Amino acid sequence: MTEPALVFGRVVATFRAAEDKTQGDYATELGWDRSVLARIEVGRNDVSIANVLDIEAMLIKHGLITTFGQLVQVTSEVTAELKARPKINGDAPAVVDRIAGTVVDRWLQKRTA
């Protein structure tokens, strides 16, 4: 099974990429060192509730989500899609990226519809 930290991190990275922002842009806005965000995005750091709330507040400010809890909801949707698909060689980061991209794109399209 894919690590939850990886799924969460890839969802954050996908939202960031949707805005064409760098890790440095997001990290500066969050008041973090870029390396902290980089480790979160690749699933090397477990994320605290405070980190999740900080990221969600920023995504709300950017108009990508509207309420607290939606980042976790999108992450749950990615996890559900990963569980529903047959595993070929485990869930490589590229597979997680592809599914996160699909789910986030779908999420953003619903927001603008």
Which CATH-level-2 architecture?
Orthogonal Bundle
CATH fold name? 434 Repressor (Amino-terminal Domain)
**Which ranges are low-confidence, i.e. pLDDT below 50, for 5 or more consecutive residues?**
none
Helical amount among residues, as a percent range?
Answer: 55-70%
Question: Tally of extended strands?
Answer: 0
| Tally of separate domains | 1
- The CATH H-level superfamily is lambda repressor-like DNA-binding domains
Instruction: Using the coordinates above, name the CATH class.
Output: Mainly Alpha
What's the tally of helices?
6
Query: What is the molecular shape?
Result: globular
H/E order of the elements? HHHHHH
How many whole angstroms does the radius of gyration measure?
13 Å
Mean pLDDT, to the nearest integer, reads: 91
Residue fraction in strands: under 5%
The quaternary state of the protein chains shown equals single chain
Give the structural class: mainly alpha
Distance between the termini: 33 Å
Outline the structure in words.
- By secondary structure, this protein is mainly α.
- The chain has one domain: 434 Repressor (Amino-terminal Domain).
- It contains six helices and no strands.
- Helix 1 (4-18) crosses helix 6 (93-112) and helix 2 packs across helix 3 (34-41).
- The chain is globular and about 40 Å long.
- The model has no long low-confidence stretch (mean pLDDT 91).
What attributes does this structure have?
70% helix, single chain, 113 residues, mainly alpha, 6 helices
Gist of the model:
The protein has helices at residues 4-18, 23-30, 34-41, 49-61, 70-84, 93-112. It is mainly alpha-helical and 113 residues long.
